[in-house]
Fold these 3 entries.
Entry 1:
Amino acid sequence: MEQLSFFAEAGQSKGLPRELLEYRPGFIDKQTSDELHQKVTKETPWKQSTQKMWDKEYLTPRLTSWHGDIGTDYSVSGKISNPNPWTPELLMLKEKVEAVANIKFNSVLLNYYRDGNDSVAWHSDRESVLGKNPVIASVSFGQVRSFDIRNKADHGEHYSVKLEHGSFLLMKAGLQEYWEHRIAKSTKPMKARVNLTFRVVL
């Protein structure tokens, strides 16, 4: 039961640390978001990875796909993944998030949450290939899900953002070092959601 969300049911938590997170609902208009959600869901070469825990292999509770420039190999759920090529849709979104983040990204990780049973556990994106204090830009399509963060040193300090259809979230420098984040499982019926996190692989 630990994965079930203990955050507010609606909206954003009060006191959200703006120095670490920037959230923009309606970053992509609804019609374009609808089209992208359908196209990306249908045409992406999704894979379900496995993770080893306590000497057993478990299926990761979501589907993923790694895309980027040549040479941007990345570890997804502990497995090295060579990048799939950019699509016109991904390049369009990359250009839009780069204009806001003021960073040139060279790769993107796509996550497909099929329903409320799909999730990602508490973690921070601190792989060495991302460098120190990485900045990650995120775009979401489909079902609204809660993006939860908590302070590594004090789990009592936690916040939540409802990631809406067509929304943008910028994870700023320092978030990965001192905080963890997750998308929790849900006991409520959930439709499909696609999330794209643009990164710089060194």
Entry 2:
Amino acid sequence: MAVSRAEKETELQELSEAFRGTETAVLVDYRGVTVPQVTELRRQIRAAGGSYRVVKNSLAKRAAAGTTVALLDKHFAGSTAVVSTGADPVAMAKALTAFLKATPSMTVKAAVVQGQAVAATAVSELATMPGKPELYAKLLYVLQAPMQQLVTVLSAVPRDLVNVISAYERKRTDEGASAS
């Protein structure tokens, strides 16, 4: 069944919008991957806040013009799928890398990470980095530590005073008990 010009234009518009909202994109060669495997990959990528889309190379090149994905223009050849996200690139890289380990027939062609073209091997390196939630937790800990130390220092004086008074009271009680 032939695809009409209107359908191609619609697909080009959808792809252009998807690429404009993308900070991170990975081009993968999906040859040798079964439909159930692709379905599982789509589910994992969607859970990580990304999308997986098989593209026609000529349409993808036209849609990428003027976006960060245009840096990958020369890699749109052969069977190509685009894994992209506008949110957390680390979560997407972790999901993709885990899938690639289980499915060696799928390979990474090239990638753009937050507007910078990177080598295909950088995707697996990106997957080893901590994700946004973990980085936020570390930042919160770093911001909270000085306040916690200040509270500890400020509460030390009253606590020490209570300990001295308590020790004095015990001493008086012991002296009173030994005098009787």
Entry 3:
Amino acid sequence: MVTGASRGIGRACALGLARGGCKVALGARQMDKLEEVAGEICAAGGEAFPVSIDLASPDSIKEAFSKTAKEFGRIDILVNNAGITRDGLALRMKRDDWESVIATNLSGAFYCIQQVMSPMLRERWGRIINIVSLVGESGNPGQANYVASKAGLIGLTKSLAQELGSRTITVNAVAPGFIETDMTSVLKDDLKQKMLTQIPLGRIGSAEDVAAAVCFLASDGASYITGHTIDVNGGMYMR
């Protein structure tokens, strides 16, 4: 299951996992876009199941995972990718902007994880991969809500890695840096050029760069990695 699979990083992750032989459930609010991605996967010989999901609604999450399990089978790999931004300085941030970002990015991811934990525990195998962000590690002015949600998701990753490790379930995170997506495409060219000066590799990342890290963490080759955050940022932030 890949949430936020209708575009950008989520779409790239879904396509990458499908190429690796996974049957992929595609979750997002826009069913028409999901069906396009599903069509791409099926045209290439893969299997895909689009399902409507609203990460801000626990009931929607429960329904989507129940429908997926019934129609498509057990979920062995979960990629928590869906997220929103509502930027603004903390001094003037509206309560709804704070709560909606936390509800979708952090609480929504947690409720998705709850839906797959029991089956994974029974099977004694699973992969949970949370898409976080460089700013969840470094901070960023004007994004207190988004940064808090992603930093919280990093902490959740570490805690669940410790809870679930004994059952061969790994829990990891991928932290993208400056990636070419719909979210960054609206930025002005001068700001993009300024950002490029801070990236040692000298280029904006692609959704496929992030998907490659996700596919690795989902593979048997990553079976001894858990509780870790992989930075995919071109060297923009180094811990």
